[in-house]
Amino acid sequence: MGCDCVEVENYKVVKEIGKNNTEIYKSYLLRSKTNVNEYVYKSVNVNALNQKEKDSIFNEINLLKEIDHPNVIEIKNSYYSKDKKFLNIISEYAEEGTLQEKYEEQKKNKQYFDENDLLDWFIQIILALKCIHDKNILHRDIRPSNIFLMKDMAKLGNFGVAKAVSPTINYAKTMVTKPEYLAPEVKKNSNYTFEADIWALGVTFYQLIILDYPFEGNSIDKIQANIEAGNIKPIPKDCKIDSKFIKIVKEMMCVNPQERITLQKILEESTIKSRIKCYLNIRKFAELELEAKKTIKDFENEEKRRKKKVPVVKEEEEEQKENENETEEQKIQKEKEKQERKEKKAKYNQLRHMTTLNRMITIKEK
Known about the structure:
Phosphorylase Kinase, domain 1; 5-stranded antiparallel sheet; elongated; 9 strands
């Protein structure tokens, strides 16, 4: 099993980054030949599926390709191999790994996550989940290993088992996530809907908060009994996390799906609402700063070209010679260009000042 050379001809295969022991899938890191962007190429063996199931997964992935959200891993392309044995997916690459990797590192070091990091990741994944639920898509495999991290960004990914749900029949009958994240109604083989994703996300974040699985038990039966009874492990005394945030996460693990907190209710909670507002403002400023940097670069390049054409030491002398033979129309045009350059320089200075201040604030906060 390897990369399909025809489909990845615009990429360079950097290395193999993951494979399943049963040879169900392999993953490769790709780098674009046209820019420095990196992507993941995942090849999934679908031999065990019938054609209807293959088409269903392929259609779901095509649906997910239409999702444009900053906190959802973007699927760039998907296609079958020529022999129809493999489903190949090219998606965004998360350079900082997964929350599962972060969790294992923190647990090993016996160091709780910073509350701000947890809240930032939480609101970003909540926004991602709302986006896919609004499109009637169940993720069905929410867990730490399917939450990916980039610089200052958390993204929900691995939608290969997502389920597009009919708006008129909004429930499903199968679940494919790890048993630890299965909602009680799923374990009872009942019909389930979006509440199952909320349960899995609640379990995920409670696990991140206490650095342990939320339900006690030295056997599957005992764990299941505690899940059904709603016996969640208490928060350790040395874990200093806002009680309002913990309350929300616990309400996500309510045994009765009808009583489980909804995404809309989570978004209306004051702690989450204010945090989302702050997050969106930061993102807006980051976009403005990116635009500012581009404007600065364009101005500097323009000035370099201009000065190369008319050296600074000769600029005044050149202007005097040109003025002698200029028509009135040329003089007006020249004055207009001069004014435009002056305005650009003023904007350039303003933007340089803004980005410098932002760097100073960032350094101070750290």
